[in-house]
Write a structure and sequence with these properties.
Number of strands: 5
Order of helices and strands: EHEHEHEHEH
Radius of gyration: 13 Å
CATH topology: Rossmann fold
Mean pLDDT: 90
CATH class: Alpha Beta
Helix content: 40-55%
């Protein structure tokens, strides 16, 4: 299973990466929306872990591009704000599967990736 982590905080991305790699996932990391778009254009992903607040660029643009290029890719949004706590992210981005806090336990996030990634592999195009 291939996972793209789009996270500006390198330490946090590395924590998530280590947990996912322990489950034998192939993990790629992009710090900015531009790097994420480039990765999505070059490779297929089953799941994207995407921080809504990036240091550079727009997370929603990344999600839109992923929906266009890889419609079966599922997105797990993470955030440390309450901005989308009303669930509106799910009406704005059809590939959104979850919205969790950045402080979510890495093993819980890994379980979500495993769940949504297995569904991505079985979805018809």
């Amino acid at each position: 299973m291939r996972v793209l982590i789009v996270e500006s905080e390198i330490e946090l991305a590395n924590i998530w990466r280590r947990h996912l790699e322990r489950l034998s996932f192939e993990v790629h990391h992009a710090e900015t929306s531009d790097l994420a778009v480039e990765a999505i254009g070059d490779q297929d992903f089953d799941v994207i872990i995407l921080n809504l607040i990036l240091a550079e660029g727009s997370a929603l643009a990344v999600s839109d591009y992923a929906q266009y290029r890889q419609p079966n890719t599922n997105v797990i949004f993470v955030t440390d704000t309450s901005f989308f706590s009303d669930g509106s992210i799910f009406s704005m981005t059809p590939n959104a599967r979850a919205l969790v806090r950045t402080g979510t336990k890495p093993e819980d996030l890994a379980a979500m990736v495993e769940h949504y990634g297995s569904h991505a592999e079985t979805q018809p195009v």
